[in-house]
Amino acid sequence: MTAAPSTARPVQPSVVIVGAGTLCVLAFLCLEYGWRMPTLLGLGALLGLVLYHAAFGFTAAYRRLIVDRDPTAVRAQVVMLGVATLLFAPTLAGGQGIGIEVSGAKAPLGIQVAVGAFLFGLGMQLGNGCGSGTLFTLGGGSTRMIITLIFFCVGSFWGSLDMLWWNNTPRLDAIVLGEQLGWGYGAGLQLILLAGAWWILGRSHTPDTPSRPFRLTVLLKGNWPFLWGAVALAVLSWTSLLIAGHTWSITWAFSLWGAKAAQFFGWSADGIWFWTGGYQAHALKHSILEDTVSVMDLGIVFGALIASGLAGRFAPTTRLPWRTLAAAVIGGLLMGYGARIAFGCNIGAFFSGVASTSLHGWLWIATALAGTWIGIHLRPWFGLPKS
Length: 387
Hints:
Layout: H1 13-30, H2 36-53, H3 59-68, H4 72-94, E1 109-110, H5 111-127, H6 131-139, H7 144-161, H8 163-167, E2 171-172, H9 177-181, H10 183-202, H11 217-221, H12 226-244, H13 252-264, H14 278-285, H15 292-311, H16 322-341, H17 346-355, H18 359-378
Antiparallel strand pairs: 1-2
């Protein structure tokens, strides 16, 4: 996602009212499931506002790094990971949030993570958005993202049907630095690695960008510096850990929404390994407003809608060339399937995994970058700019 132009535009009150009104209705409905759900909805809305105002997408950030050798946005991601690591480590060491036990994002190191992340990296360049990017650009008025999200859900549901097969592929047990070395040493080692990555990225050529003077209106109307977004997202994701008991996640909800849609058309979960026990079976039988990830995802969409109205930039279009639609379909399917088998997307697997000091997060980004490189070179075939 490219940063929004700095030209001031008038606030769109109707857009802000629709976004805020919808959030209020959803919050009222969520009250049935306790205080945590409306709180997480509001937290999701803040995430959506930050993502939109900072244009904090992963897809364009990697494209700028690879094509233009501009590491600015990726260095901001490294800062985000560093701040999150500092916040997560003592919380995960204590094991307690706000009246709830907490757990980090960890997953096995195996073929399924590598393949899934590769597919996701390829798909996000065609779909033109990552997990979080799909949601906040949808809320910001991108009609193209409606197609991407639909097929993201289809691909994620498809991946859930194949999870038993992927779980039987070669793998190592999860390796979490904080658990293996102690949280102080584990977090310290990771911070050294992140500092090294930040320094190496800084040696890349960075195009000259004019500095922007601080104005209070920037807080509400957007065009935030990437570093503002990085710190805000780290703090909000840590708050999610404290309240929800788990790290920030995006794409589990897409699997759930896809499965619920399939049920509507007559599909049965009977005999499907992924859906026949525990958390997944419970979520499938209950409202999405009882699911923490779904509620936060909805918050992101409507928070971004409010942000776009405040910025005066909500301007959906119905003019979508067929090649662009084809890329959205293919990209959505690849991202959905890849995220499901890799235990998450750029947020649930990469960001939350690394912030939890789980090595699967590092494996995820390494293989996702390989898929990203191929996806960038495929973009012109679909009428999408390479940079």
